[in-house]
Amino acid sequence: MTRVSSALMFALRWTVLLCLFGRALAFLPACPAKNSPISSRSRLLYHPAVEGWEEKYIACGGEPSTDGGPRVISDEFECRAATEAELADLDVAHWPVWTTGDKEKWAVGNQVVNKEMPYGELSYVTAGKLEIIPQSSGKPVVLKVGDLVTFPKGFVASWQVVEELTWNYYLY
Predict the structure, then answer these.
(1) Residue 121 CB burial class (10 angstroms; 0-12, 13-18, ≥19)
(2) CA angle 91, 92, 93 (to 5 degrees)
(3) What are the distances in angstroms from CA 22 to CA 19, 27, 100?
(4) Which pLDDT tens digit goes with each residue over 58-69?
């Protein structure tokens, strides 16, 4: 086989592979849209930590619904005081709970620099304080009890636990 025909065969193989790969990608789910309901199982395929979230939610008494419950409420990093109506609508009482108390990496005073969120997360702070310094702004934000916080996928920040932290969380 000549060099030219070898190169053509190589190019043909790659073209076929790319075509097949492109078709395979068409079957992958799109990223979840803002306000997407929990029943959209496609969002569960993005990160191993996200895969078991719905089962944890159900184990905590939550019921998947298209009328309310956990959903994406912002596409950007956001921290604000939650209202009782909002907490009820999002069904936060049934979200799984995460705490820094049993995790050495997240001990009070420790700092995690340039942590990138590999998935989206919506959290409701029930105890403690956490200082976040977003890479984009460099301005510290202190999360405290009563705050509803959105961490979009890809968000990069430095994190420091000020007081042992506990929050309810929704992963997407």
Answers:
(1) buried
(2) 90
(3) 5, 9, 42
(4) 988 998 776 778
Residue type, 14: W
pLDDT at residue number 66: 64
Residues 6+ apart with CB under 8 A from 118: 47, 49, 153
Q: Is the pLDDT of residue 40 over 90?
A: no
Cβ atoms 90, 38 nearer than 8 A:
no
Contacts of 98 (CB under 8 A, 6+ apart): 123, 166, 167, 168, 169
d(CA 19, CA 5): 21
Helix, strand, or coil (residue 80): strand
This prediction's pTM:
0.71
Structure confidence at residue 91 as a pLDDT band (50, 70, 90): very high
